[in-house]
Amino acid sequence: MYRSLVHGILENDHGSISKAVTLIENGGAETGPLLNDIYKSTVESLRIGITGPPGAGKSTITNALIDIFLENKKTVGVIAVDPTSPFSGGSLLGDRIRMNHYAWDERVFVRSMGSHGELGGLARKSQDVGDVLAASGKDIVLYETVGVGQSEHDIVKAADVSIVVLVPESGDEVQMMKAGLIEIADLFIINKSDRDGADRLSSMLKNVLHSFNPEGKIEPPIFNTVGTEGVGIKELYRGIFDHVDSMIGLGQLDKRRLARYRQRVSALVRETLEDSFWTDDKKELLYKVTKTSDRITDAPHIMAEALLGNTDEE
Ligand SMILES: Nc1nc2c(ncn2[C@@H]2O[C@H](COP(=O)(O)OP(=O)(O)OP(=O)(O)O)[C@@H](O)[C@H]2O)c(=O)[nH]1
Ligand SMILES: [Mg+2]
Q: Of the residues 78, 228, 229, 231, which should be mutated to test ligand 1's pocket, given the most ligand atoms within 8 Å of the CB?
């Protein structure tokens, strides 16, 4: 069955792409062979991650970027990842990226993915879906993900270029997240720049970047946008490709892709080992021991060792 999907994906058949995404989400056994058959065709696409606090305007910016990509004859695949939502497919989040608007346009494919309750897997799966979109020939693969902690960190690692969207009121966030934020971001957007405080945040962020940007990392440019009006989008578009050119010039894009490959392999090994480790017996044993506090007699380390040493627990 997966062979016909491979064929469909390479032909940019959106029906086949949809089916492949569902296969990946459900963790179907054919996922591995499918991804292997398309892998060679996945390298050309540029992967862009957009993250930021809830409601900052990520989807609005994504919509505006889709338009400008299309104007410039670039095809786009969008994956809206919401670690906080158990839903996927046609969920709310994706609706805000004009999913239906592009339903019959073979230049654009939009899909949202929810967590189904397991965060770790979500980052990995969104990368797998990125491969499917890349193999279908999309020039750009764009991940939108809401910034709520470690999960967006993982998802952003899936990208060649990461964009952090802030709003004029994000000053405290910038102060609090300094290091983490700067590590993640290649470009910053201050969206909703029609509101007060955009310039203030801009200069504050600039100062933070001057002091904290790690050596060797290109200092992230800052773009002021009004997503709803399309203000600043052209500059952002140019900024993205300028940044990619600089990264290529410094050999950073290639380095990042190699690191990503390593990280994906490690994650898969970890997932596979854990999956095979947690037999029903072991789950049951841990559950029994932690049913009430007074049943716990050992430190977590001892319990873990007992589990690791045990194949047959009753
Ligand atoms: N005033 C103003 N409102 C904006 C701007 N950009 C987006 N909005 C509005 O902000 C709200 C949230 O925008 P979204 O694009 O859905 O934000 P998001 O970051 O994708 O939201 P989540 O995916 O829910 O985290 C919407 O009502 C937009 O119309 C802007 O530049 N200025
Ligand atoms: Mg959104």
A: 228
Ligand 1 centre to CA of 88 (Å) is 20
pLDDT, tens digit (0-9, with 9 covering 90-100), for 268-288:
999 889 889 999 999 999 999
Query: Rounded to two decimals, what is the model's pTM?
Result: 0.90
**Strands, E assignment, 83-220:** 108-114, 140-146, 161-166, 187-190
Domains, the chain: 39-252 (3.40.50.300)
CA of 124 to the centre of ligand 1 (A): 27
pLDDT < 70 stretches in the chain: 83-100, 115-120, 148-156, 177-179, 310-314
Maximum Cα–Cα distance across the chain: 65
φ/ψ of 84, rounded to 5, equals: -90, -5
Distance (Å, whole) CA 214 – CA 179: 9
Other C-beta atoms closer than 10 Å to the C-beta of 21 total 21
Q: Is the CB of 96 inside a 6 Å radius of any atom of ligand 1?
A: yes
- Which residue, judged by its Cα, is nearest atom 13 of ligand 1? 57
Shortest-distance atom of ligand 1 to CA 55: 21
Identify the CA nearest to 135 among candidates 68, 282, 37, 27: 37
Q: Say if ligand 1 is within 6 A of residue 194 CB.
A: yes
